[in-house]
Design brief:
Elements lengths: L4 E4 L3 H12 L4 E4 L3 H9 L8 E4 L2 H7 L5 E4 L5 H10 L8 E4 L5 H10 L4 E7 L1 H7 L2 E5 L2 H14 L2 E2 L2 E2 L1 E5 L3 H30 L4 H11 L7 H11 L1 E2 L4 E2 L13 H12 L4 H13 L2 H11 L13 H30 L5 H7 L9 H12 L9 H23 L5 H13 L6 H12 L20
Parallel strand pairs: 1-2, 1-4, 2-3, 4-5, 5-6, 7-10
Antiparallel strand pairs: 6-7, 8-9, 11-12
Helix pairs in contact: 1-6, 8-11, 8-12, 8-14, 9-10, 11-12, 12-18, 14-17, 14-18, 15-16
Bound molecules: 6-phosphogluconic acid.
């Protein structure tokens, strides 16, 4: 019996994806560099073992799959992907397809598509181990006809939103991996915004972890309802046996990162796309890692007196501020996607992307359903201009402003919330201050400016004389 599909790389995500595929009725041949891992995996697959074929060499893997073959790569991003492709392609027929389902940098995916003669697809898979096993969100990129070949399997294994699979073709070339990177950038920002709210509750209002957990649970019943708010409540509620106290209180405040959020920030700079909330989140992770330096600076300057009177900061205002910051962050993400689509000539569509993000992925939330509708109704990537979100912003921006000013007065760092407000205030200011910058540029470098009154270009000030 031939397998319908093959998979290379039985790490956490690869193994979970293989079981998901088998569970949906597909026979799958699997290969891992360490052979014992392959046999352990199939041996431990219980009822699903009958649909799994363990293979010990790439030749065996290729021979086990029905033609034209589809082989999913789930190996670490970067060189391992190139090495795996180099080892695999000599064994394949011309129409066999490789699907890279790892967290690849989309520039690498573009390059692989250019260089390879083999059909090649790059798909972003989100949802962690649990998602990969029971229903991830899947963002596909590459030739549309290749996506169509593999779509039935991907639809079967993906998360569903009211019956609609959260798996779709995003656009050409590395567009799938690009959209996954923006997803991760937003993931960083959502997490940072939540962490800032947590900080104001812990250090400002002096709330204990239980009270904070309850607040997240309550917020999860309102406009903020989302996977990340839900797990934040669970993280805050977790108990540590060793100290008989909240687990959160013993976790070192230094955030790790594999780099996808950083890629998004770097790419945004290349595109000239403003994503200050995501950038603030990446920077905050970098600063969090400087644990000893922060301790030394606290010794030098003294800790800021962060205690805030309950009369100065209500939990309702904090909730409103988070809603406002979140909308502004997504506005930036969707605009960045539109900028990339223009720059690279892709067919990216904000509404379609929001639909894929509604379930399965880490940033899944009810608000994404509203975003999908809103972006589908307007011919613009500007979420903040869509009527329903413009109304939300009008209703919540005052709370964001109040929360930030309270935080700033008490020395509590809120970089992502502040970046959101600065973005809002900049974007809704028709007459900005870059005329001063243009004057300065012309003064020292005769760079020229445009006159507002008559629209003439390449004008110079009298200082040029
Ligand atoms: C997902 C996650 C996943 C992973 C991130 C974590 O969508 O399932 O984004 O890809 O958890 O890589 O990223 P950091 O290690 O950079 O936080």
């Amino acid at each position: 019996m031939s397998a319908d599909i093959g998979l290379i790389g039985l790490g956490t995500m690869g193994a979970a994806l293989a079981l998901n595929i088998a569970e949906k009725g597909h026979n799958i041949a699997v290969f891992n560099r360490t052979t014992s891992k392959t046999h352990d995996f199939v041996g431990g697959a219980g009822d699903l073992a009958g649909r799994l074929t363990a293979t010990e060499t790439l030749e065996e893997l290729v021979a086990a799959i029905a033609k034209p073959r589809t082989i999913i790569l789930m190996v670490p991003a970067g060189d391992p992907v190139d090495e795996q492709i180099a080892a695999l392609t000599p064994l394949l027929d011309a129409d066999d397809m490789i699907v890279d389902a790892g967290n690849a940098n989309f520039h690498d995916t573009n390059r692989r598509m250019r260089e390879l003669d083999q059909p090649f697809l790059g798909i972003g898979v989100s949802g962690g181990e649990e998602g990969a096993r029971h229903g991830p969100a899947i963002m596909g990129g590459g030739p549309r006809e290749l996506w169509d070949r593999v779509e039935p399997v991907l639809h079967a294994i993906a998360a569903k939103h009211e019956g609609t699979p959260c798996a779709d073709w995003m656009g050409e070339e590395g567009a799938g991996h690009f959209v996954k990177a923006v997803h991760n950038g937003i993931e960083y920002a959502d997490m940072q915004l939540i962490a800032e709210a947590y900080g104001l509750m812990r250090d400002g209002l002096g709330m204990d972890a239980d009270a904070i957990a309850q607040t997240f649970q309550r917020w999860n019943e309102g406009a903020l309802r989302s996977y990340l708010i839900e797990i934040s409540g669970e993280v805050a509620a977790a108990h540590d046996e060793a100290t008989d106290g909240p687990l959160l209180d013993v976790i070192l405040d230094a955030a790790g990162q594999k780099g996808t959020g950083r890629w998004t920030a770097i790419e945004a700079q290349h595109l000239g796309a403003p994503i200050p909330v995501i950038e603030a989140a990446v920077v905050a992770r970098n600063m969090s890692a400087r644990v000893e330096e922060r301790a030394r600076m606290e010794d030098l300057f003294g800790a800021a007196p962060q205690t805030i009177a309950a009369s100065d900061l209500s939990l309702d205002a904090l909730e409103q501020a988070l809603i406002c910051g979140k909308i502004l962050c997504y506005d930036q993400g969707f605009r960045m996607i539109a900028a990339a689509s223009d720059q690279y000539g892709w067919s990216l569509n904000g509404a379609r992307i929001a639909r894929v993000w509604r379930q399965g992925c880490i940033i899944r939330s009810e608000m994404l359903d509203d975003m999908a509708s809103a972006l589908g109704e307007v011919d613009s990537p500007a979420l903040m201009a869509a009527p329903v979100f413009a109304d939300h912003l009008k209703a919540t921006q005052k709370a964001l402003r109040n929360v930030i000013s309270t935080a700033v007065r008490h020395g509590a760092p809120v970089p992502a919330l502040s970046a959101a407000l600065a973005y809002f205030d900049t974007m809704r200011t028709a007459r900005g201050t870059a005329n001063m910058i243009q004057g300065q540029r012309d003064f020292f470098g005769r760079h020229g400016f445009v006159r507002m009154d008559d629209g003439t270009k390449d004008q110079h000030g009298s200082w040029a004389d």
